[in-house]
């Protein structure tokens, strides 16, 4: 297992280095941030002083070398917009996104596995048709449309929930509910399909013939063998939220890393952009590593 994890970690580390190099040079293509942070009537001397202070006068190769040296010392630079360490800004925003992702994916995973498994137990039944109908609608519904409709109905018309912010638990209801819909629909379909295949296998039929109750057949004998494709989809959906649910965070004014990343790109706050990409990439790599470990635990053949 140690060798297995080491190989995955090494591959992720190489990808991370390549990503940092790519993002550094691509971010510089957006232009000089001087005009965004100084008044329009700022003198030429003031502009040159700003560029000199932040190292924008140096060639790109020199800027990159300096960034790599700082990065090796754990220094991710300073935010131009907030005048404080970029990593501090990013971790604060990532904390909000992480909480949003954990709450959403916990609800999604439990609901999709339970409902999808029960739907697969009696294929074609009333419960199966209802679950399939709503999961297909959820999987195909655009996030931005759901968010706007939810705000209009529950915040504007009914006045049940706030439109944006994070001040109280009620502020979390709409973002979590909107983010819940699409992953729930996708994961439920995968659970249902995998469980249909497993429940039609010979060993399940034998268990039924021996009089084993339905609950152990579904959640003990069947679910373990159906989890490999389900884990893949759960990991993909969790990584998408961890990478920043940009649309949802923007619509609901949620101070997560997705919104921070977009704002930083528009403001050419290079240090925050790079720190955001770094944190998001590490989170995704850790998520993929956990998926690989889960695969190996469920199917030991994958380790070798």
TrEMBL record:
Residues 94-291 form the ABC transmembrane type-1 domain. Keywords: Cell membrane, Membrane, Transmembrane, Transmembrane helix, Transport. Pfam families: BPD_transp_1. Gene3D superfamilies: MetI-like. It is a multi-pass membrane protein. The chain crosses the membrane at residues 9-29, 96-121, 133-160, 180-204, 225-252, 272-298. This is ABC transporter permease.
């Amino acid at each position: 297992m140690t060798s297995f994890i080491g190989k995955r970690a090494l591959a992720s580390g190489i990808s991370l280095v390549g990503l940092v190099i790519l993002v550094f040079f691509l971010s510089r293509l957006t232009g000089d941030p001087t005009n965004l942070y100084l008044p329009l009537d700022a003198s030429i001397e003031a502009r040159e002083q700003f560029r000199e202070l932040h190292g924008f006068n140096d060639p790109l190769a020199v800027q990159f070398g300096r960034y790599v040296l700082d990065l090796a010392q754990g220094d991710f630079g300073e935010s131009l917009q907030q005048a404080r360490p970029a990593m501090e800004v990013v971790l604060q925003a990532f904390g909000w996104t992480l909480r949003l992702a954990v709450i959403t994916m916990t609800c999604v995973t439990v609901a999709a596995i339970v409902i999808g498994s029960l739907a697969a137990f009696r294929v074609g039944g009333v419960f199966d048709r209802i679950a399939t109908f709503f999961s297909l609608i959820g999987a195909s519904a655009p996030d931005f449309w759901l968010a706007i409709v939810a705000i209009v109905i529950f915040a504007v018309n009914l006045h049940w929930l706030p439109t944006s912010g994070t001040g109280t638990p009620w502020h979390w209801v709409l973002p979590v509910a909107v983010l819940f819909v699409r992953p729930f629909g996708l994961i439920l379909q995968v659970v249902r399909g995998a469980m249909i295949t497993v429940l039609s296998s010979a060993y399940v039929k034998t268990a039924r013939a021996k009089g084993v109750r339905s609950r152990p057949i579904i959640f003990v004998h069947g679910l373990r063998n159906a989890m490999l494709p389900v884990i893949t989809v759960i990991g993909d959906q969790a990584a998408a939220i961890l990478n920043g649910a940009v649309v949802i965070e923007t619509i609901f004014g949620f101070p997560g890393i997705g919104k921070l990343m977009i704002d930083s790109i528009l403001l050419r706050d290079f240090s925050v952009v790079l720190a955001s990409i770094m944190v998001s990439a590490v989170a995704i790599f850790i998520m993929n590593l956990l998926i690989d470990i889960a695969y190996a635990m469920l199917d030991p053949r994958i380790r070798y």
